[in-house]
Automatic annotation (TrEMBL):
Keywords: Glycosyltransferase, Transferase. Pfam families: UDPGT. Belongs to the UDP-glycosyltransferase family. The lineage of its organism: Eukaryota, Viridiplantae, Streptophyta, Embryophyta, Tracheophyta. This is Glycosyltransferase. One of its GO terms (molecular function) is UDP-glucosyltransferase activity. Its EC number is 2.4.1.-.
Amino acid sequence: MEKPAELVFIPSPGIGHLVSTLEIAKFLLSRDDQLLITVLIMKFPAVSKGTDAYVESFADSSSPISQRIKFINLPQVNTDHTEGSVRNSLIGFVESQQPHVKDAITKLSESQTRLAGFVVDMFCTAMIDVADQFGVPSYVFFTSSAAALGLMLHVQALRDQEGKDCTEFKDSDAELLIPSFVNPLPAAKVLPGRLFVKEGAESFLNIIKRFRDTKGILVNTFADLESHALHALSSDAVIPPVYPVGPLLNLNTNESSVDSDEAKQKSDILKWLDDQPPLSVVFLCFGSMGSFGEDQVKEIAHALEQAGHRFLWSLRRPPPTGKIAFPSDYDDHTGVLPKGFLDRTVGIGKVIGWAPQVAVLAHPSVGGFVSHCGWNSTLESLWHGVPVATWPLYAEQQLNAFQLVEELELAVEIDMSYRSESPVLVSAKEIERGIREVMKRDNDIRNRVKEMSEKGKKALMDGGSSYSSVGQFIDQI
């Protein structure tokens, strides 16, 4: 009798990447009861907050699936990091963990299972070398869109095959023709900011180059959402097979992984939403690291007053200069609001710190979402049929916003090219216009979002495109 197959998952440090990793792990386990998964947890202090509680809540689950997944904590490195050094040293930190991963796999290989391969996070491609040492295939789990994947591979090929320096695109008028996009890309506006910095671009594109050394790339997307991008990727013979496996989301809104204060906050928020009419509330939330300075906060506040819609606004102060902001680091935020704002909007608006985003988007009173366009947030909004007004901040979010607005016509624009490091303010007038557009009851965008919501859910069902794609991946391993 053949030994059960065991996959090793190596997520990037941080709760966001861990959650996505566990979602794909659960999907795979639900499809094959002979499959086992081991998740290796790297403890990078600057971004590891919350991972222990999340793992514990998952491990304590009574689900049969949880019995076939185990977690191994790799040795912790006790160092302090600013935000800048996180971006510069995370890659080096992952590389430094190679010996610890090798030790863990050596012990694992002594068990009664067959090591079937590594599934590594997009930032953990250094672990491909370890997989090679054990003679097993490696796969990448790409946590953003297929279109973004196509862009990254294209820019990497431009560098390595044509000697193109992508930092030249900064402040240029260049429009790039990328196979995974239908429309030309305005490079300076939507390329990830990392690509405009020499050192950051080199290290990042070196990571992307390693994607080509794998046996396949799992992408958290689905065929109906990104048919053009997926076709472009599959048509390129030098790109490994791409498996669309989404939309994979953590839709469990119970309180097992949040503390008692957050549970109470969630209860208060949902009670407030219960008192609002259907589709009447615009939700403003900018991710676990999104924040604005006082001047921009005042522009948002003025826009909300002028738009006149009910609102739920997740507002946080910027962290101290150079420091990382964590989801729980919400200080008192009311001091930066315009004088009298809370009095004038009492009853129609609620300003909060931490937000239970999934539960809010699922609530029938929420009719629009002003979002930073992180890929997980994008998929969550589509899943719940809530149209987005785009306001990207960093990473690949400008690219996601361009795709949503120009490529897919699934969102309205507030400012598609805004960057968090920019001193430029988005005016109250622009914000008000975006809020009014996204809150329209009957328009083509809302209808298209609802349609895409149904297609996303069907993709995961038996016979759906992502269901079939996961089956092909399991056959491969």
